[in-house]
Write a structure and sequence with these properties.
There is one protein chain. By secondary structure, the protein is of the alpha/beta class. The chain has one domain: Rossmann fold (3-Layer(aba) Sandwich), CATH 3.40.50. It contains four helices and four strands. A four-stranded mixed beta sheet has the order 2-1-3-4, sandwiched between helices. The longest helix has 12 residues.
Length: about 120
């Protein structure tokens, strides 16, 4: 989903497992995505967000992919981002089905609308 968002918005993609959190300092908007693991964000995602530099007046969009249900994923990430000074403007979840190709069109349209605000 991250690659599809990047293509549609021309925003760079950073891997949370190999990028330093300071890489986002030059941007006004952070779009962070995670798979859902045990009805929560992936541990790597939480660790990355906790290491983000403090921000002031920066916005965030959170997306997740899941097989069943997003659980507390958005609550956990919104709280951590808020502690860092981010205002979450949009949350999106996409249920992935193994036997069907992924269709992110609706999610990408919502992200584009949020970016225009």
């Amino acid at each position: 989903m991250a690659e599809a968002i990047s293509e549609a918005t021309e925003a760079p993609v950073f891997s949370i497992t190999s990028s330093e959190p300071s890489a986002v300092e030059d941007f006004d908007m952070l779009i962070v995505g995670t798979p859902v693991e045990g009805f929560r964000p992936a541990k790597e995602t939480i660790d990355f967000v906790k290491r983000l530099p403090n921000a002031e007046s920066k916005k965030a969009i959170i997306f997740c992919t899941c097989a069943l249900w997003k659980g507390r994923t958005f609550n956990v990430l919104k709280n951590e981002l808020s502690r860092k000074g981010y205002d979450t403007k949009l949350t999106l979840s996409k249920k992935m089905k193994q036997d069907q190709p992924a269709d992110f069109a609706d999610s990408i349209n919502k992200i584009k609308q949020a970016l225009e605000k």
